User: Which sequence fits this backbone?
């Protein structure tokens, strides 16, 4: 009770467990629900009796120790009128809720829980400013929500950037043959919208002897590759160290993480597309419609900032497969490349292969004059 | 407007200019940042050991580089070769034994440069042979390639040529030449790209029609 | 308490005023309402399906909405051209026109905000942008600057005329000590809103077409041509449809402002054209696309050449006093100038910024019917708001609406 919630939480009794254990909204007291390590702790249909519900609501009205989230990140000062208002609303809700539960036989806990999750998701804060507990909570809510909607489990993490890691990427122009395996792997890994055929990676087919003339290059060829007299150059988000897209975002929905990844909080993005105009590398994509991925094709191994299924009207982009790279894996495009043209690694490790490439090959970056400091280099054999 | 108003206005403008400066990083450039923050061996506690756990690897040291490569002999379907090649090659060729290796086509340099015997030793089929007749273990077949492809070998050692087996974090485990290239016909085929984006074609045609 | 009573009476009186009028007035308002409803219907489709119902794509990611937004910021800023001489230079001439100008600014700002909201992918989470509740990326993002200056300007333009009208409504004179500081502030503010809006584009190194130092000043020049031109037209309409007296002298003075601003705008256009075409670099491709088309893609050619010829024609005609002082030709000039600048500052500025894309790809942009519907709806909303404001203001200024007049 030390820290009172300043914004009234739409509480149907499900957060009570959360509050006490500080884990998740699935009603489990230990571990994170649906997490990979503990598959047994996935769903637990807890029957909440009327008394329990009543109690929870009372608890909510009195105030309980909860994570600060959403509005709370700002409203840290105690405000009497607000809490009074909250208590009033809560007590009204106790009545309404009690009536509701006693009258409804079928209005299951699931739908109530769904409403609860939707409410909390709508008013949660910016991921960038969340504490680790809050990150965990929102990830658990999202997993639970997916489970409630589809009956399937997915694993989502909120893994933070590791210390002493700065991701970098090198692309060998001499090696790329234009097979586009990377593009395919990326789409499948990152749950990109199938309807609009969104793709983060573009492979530009350039004529030998013309230099890097993107204007004359074709990034949507369909003929046998490598074509005679052509070479191939891939572009994607370059994860600039001085990213113009981050500066322009009015709500800080996009930022550079400590390991150099430029990421987006899809739930915080307002969809103004200013970042898209600011990106000199065409690294950003917008969900013009609701993105559709067939359920069986959804990659269930997700990260909050990475490949979780997006919604309509938000930006998205390459994250160097944050769900993979933070675990030590290579991004999907690197693993999929049949020619070894893609090299990925930690720029801060002097023994990493990426560092060897930067120090021993003739590398260059695109549009370096713009001062964006991309962490994506090109080189040739 | 009297003087004091003007001064206030000026102060206001100056402070506005100051607060409106974009916050800059502590580093002037990415290069500076990389060098200042470099920590040998520290990769945030991430390593690739779990990713590599199901692989049969062996450590090699070439020049300054020490890293893992996949073991090769276990991958070869008919190793060891001497199970069939128990007699000298000439005798096998002349007798009526079932033909083997008929599917192998050599498309590697020209026939005036290479033939089977450039790499294989008819008298010691279990090992490869160098240009000067020295034995090369199948597990270190990259040494065979490195005899001619010295530039690629340098790049491979450093990590600019070829792929890693899994993960970016140490320990480094790289594929060897034969994991990507068929030694008998090492160049990559021409083939169709795996993807074609019909939306892009639509988008670039003539702008959008009225819907 | 008394103030509250007066305010209540003002509201009821103005409700009376705006709901009564000639048949033509009702027809006008009815028409606007229908257009607004149609626009709302289009917007509901957009909300449902997402922005894919517009012509915008990943290539051209801002279109008609942001074009209109940019243009209207200019119109709003132009109110200052009337405020400055009236309140600061004490030129009595403008006093009546200024209320109209500020009403216009309010309507334009409301349209600006509506256009921005229409352009958002997630209007439901716009609260993320509210300082205090959400996260306001100030001062890094120019968009947050724009939010501040636009809302501040909206507040100024509502409060100053409201104070004056409120006093006049009670039959009292307004106290200059109250409104003059506000007026002075709004002068700076008006320049700020337009400069900040220009910086929104100017600060993007990714788009060479926008990333040039002349963009801000050119915004100002074109705004001070298009805004007052619209005010002249509106005053002309008000003059012929109401008993509100606007002196010819006033309109002539505004015409002078329009002329000078349009001339400066033309000079800047020439300077820009010189820079782009005398020694073209690959940064000039957007300009090539705009004026001559690129790789057979020529969607903007008819628009921009219409705009330029109208612009030149208007400037030439306005330069001669004979045309400028003749109201018929003046209205004509103002109209074509307004259209010319709407094209030039609207999609003539926004769309080429995206073409060719960062990697030289060209995908042209054509607004869809739904997008046009929403746009028309928002324009109708602006006209609606302006009509209401103007009718109330005129009622008070002409003395038809006075506190206590009806009850006594």
Assistant:
């Amino acid at each position: 009770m030390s820290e009172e919630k300043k914004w009234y939480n739409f509480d149907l009794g499900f957060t009570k467990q959360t509050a006490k254990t500080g884990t998740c909204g699935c009603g489990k007291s230990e571990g994170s629900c649906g997490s990979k390590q503990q598959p047994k702790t996935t769903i637990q249909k807890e029957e909440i009796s009327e008394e329990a519900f009543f109690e929870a609501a009372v608890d909510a009205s009195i105030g309980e120790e909860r994570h600060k989230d959403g509005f709370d990140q700002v409203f840290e000062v105690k405000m009497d009128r607000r809490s009074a208002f909250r208590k009033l609303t809560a007590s009204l809700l106790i009545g309404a809720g009690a009536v509701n539960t006693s009258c409804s036989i079928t209005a299951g806990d699931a739908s109530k829980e769904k409403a609860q999750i939707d409410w909390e998701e709508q008013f949660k804060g910016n991921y960038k400013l969340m504490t680790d507990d809050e990150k965990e909570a929102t990830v658990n809510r999202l997993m639970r929500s997916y489970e409630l909607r589809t009956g399937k489990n997915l694993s989502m993490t909120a893994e933070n950037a590791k210390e002493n890691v700065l991701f970098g990427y090198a692309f060998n122009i001499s090696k790329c043959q234009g097979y586009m395996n990377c593009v395919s792997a990326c789409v499948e890994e990152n749950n990109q919208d199938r309807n609009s055929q969104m793709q983060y990676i573009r492979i530009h087919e350039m004529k030998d002897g013309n230099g890097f003339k993107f204007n004359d290059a074709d990034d949507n060829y369909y003929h046998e590759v490598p074509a005679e007299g052509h070479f191939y150059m891939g572009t994607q988000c370059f994860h600039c160290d001085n990213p113009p897209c981050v500066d322009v975002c009015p709500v800080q929905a996009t930022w550079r993480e400590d390991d150099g990844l430029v990421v987006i909080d899809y739930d915080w993005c307002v969809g103004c597309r200013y970042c898209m105009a600011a990106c000199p590398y065409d690294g950003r994509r917008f969900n013009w419609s609701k993105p559709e991925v067939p359920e069986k094709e959804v990659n269930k191994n997700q990260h909050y900032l990475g490949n979780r299924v997006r919604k309509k009207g938000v930006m998205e982009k390459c994250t160097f497969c944050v769900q993979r790279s933070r675990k030590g894996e290579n991004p999907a495009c690197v693993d999929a490349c049949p020619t070894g043209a893609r090299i990925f690694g930690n720029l801060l490790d002097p023994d990493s292969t990426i560092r060897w490439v930067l120090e021993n090959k003739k590398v260059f970056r695109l549009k370096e004059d713009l001062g964006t400091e991309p962490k994506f280099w090109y080189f040739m054999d | 407007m009297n003087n004091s108003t003007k001064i206030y206005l000026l102060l206001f403008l100056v402070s506005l200019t100051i607060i409106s400066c974009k916050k800059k990083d502590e580093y002037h450039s990415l290069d500076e940042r990389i060098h200042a923050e470099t920590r040998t061996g520290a990769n945030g506690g991430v390593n690739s050991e779990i990713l590599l756990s199901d692989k049969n690897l062996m450590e090699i040291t070439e020049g300054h580089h020490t890293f893992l490569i996949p073991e090769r002999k276990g991958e070869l379907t008919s190793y060891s070769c001497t199970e069939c090649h128990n007699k000298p090659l000439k005798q096998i060729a002349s007798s009526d034994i079932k033909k083997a290796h008929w599917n192998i086509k050599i498309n590697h340099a020209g026939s005036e440069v290479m033939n089977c015997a450039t790499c294989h030793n008819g008298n010691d089929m279990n090992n490869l042979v160098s240009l000067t007749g020295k034995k090369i273990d199948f597990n270190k077949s990259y040494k065979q390639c490195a005899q001619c492809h010295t530039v690629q070998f340098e790049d491979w050692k450093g990590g600019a040529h070829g792929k890693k087996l899994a993960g970016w974090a140490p320990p480094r485990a790289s594929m060897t030449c034969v994991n990507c290239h068929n030694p008998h016909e090492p160049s990559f085929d021409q083939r169709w790209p795996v993807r074609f984006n019909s939306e892009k074609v639509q988008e670039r045609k003539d702008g959008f029609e009225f819907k | 308490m008394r103030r509250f009573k007066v305010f209540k009476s003002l509201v009821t009186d103005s409700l009376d005023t705006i709901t009564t009028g000639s048949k033509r007035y009702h027809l006008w308002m009815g028409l606007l309402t229908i257009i607004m409803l149609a626009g709302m219907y289009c917007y509901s489709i957009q909300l449902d399906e997402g922005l894919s119902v517009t012509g915008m794509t990943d290539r051209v990611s801002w279109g008609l909405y942001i074009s209109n937004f940019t243009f209207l910021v200019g119109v709003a800023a132009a109110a200052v051209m009337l405020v400055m001489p009236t309140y600061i230079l004490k030129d009595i001439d403008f006093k009546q026109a200024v209320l109209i100008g500020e009403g216009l600014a309010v309507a334009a700002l409301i349209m600006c905000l509506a256009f921005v909201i229409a352009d958002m992918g997630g209007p439901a989470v716009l609260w993320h942008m509210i300082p205090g509740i959400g996260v306001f990326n100030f001062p890094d993002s120019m968009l947050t600057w724009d939010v501040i200056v636009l809302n501040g300007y909206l507040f100024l333009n509502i409060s100053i005329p409201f104070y004056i009208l409120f006093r006049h409504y009670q039959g009292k004179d307004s106290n200059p000590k109250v409104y003059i500081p506000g007026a002075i502030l709004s002068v700076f503010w008006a320049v700020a809103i337009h400069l900040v809006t220009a910086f929104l584009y100017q600060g993007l190194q990714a788009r060479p077409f926008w990333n040039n130092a002349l963009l801000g000043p050119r915004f100002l020049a074109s705004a001070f041509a298009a805004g007052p031109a619209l005010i002249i037209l509106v005053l002309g309409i008000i003059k012929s449809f109401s008993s509100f007296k606007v002196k010819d002298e006033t309109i002539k003075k505004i015409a002078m402002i329009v002329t000078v601003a349009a001339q400066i705008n033309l000079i800047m256009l020439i300077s820009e054209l010189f820079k782009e075409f005398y020694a073209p670099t690959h940064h000039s491709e957007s300009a090539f696309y705009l004026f001559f088309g690129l790789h057979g893609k020529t969607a903007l050619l008819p628009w921009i050449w219409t705009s330029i010829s109208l612009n030149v024609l208007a400037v030439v005609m306005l330069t001669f006093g004979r045309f400028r002082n003749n109201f018929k030709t003046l209205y004509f000039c103002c109209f074509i100038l307004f259209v010319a600048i709407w094209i030039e500052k609207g999609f003539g500025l926004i769309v080429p910024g995206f073409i060719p894309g960062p990697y030289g790809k060209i995908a042209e942009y054509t607004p869809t019917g739904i997008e046009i519907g929403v746009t028309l709806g928002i324009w109708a909303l602006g006209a609606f708001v302006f009509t209401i404001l103007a009718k109330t203001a005129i009622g008070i200024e002409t003395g038809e609406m006075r506190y206590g007049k009806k009850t006594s």
Remarks:
- Residues 291 and 302 of chain C are 9 Å apart (CA to CA).
- Chain C touches chain B at residues 53, 55, 57, 59, 139-140, 184, 297, 299, 361-366, 368-370 (CB under 8 Å).
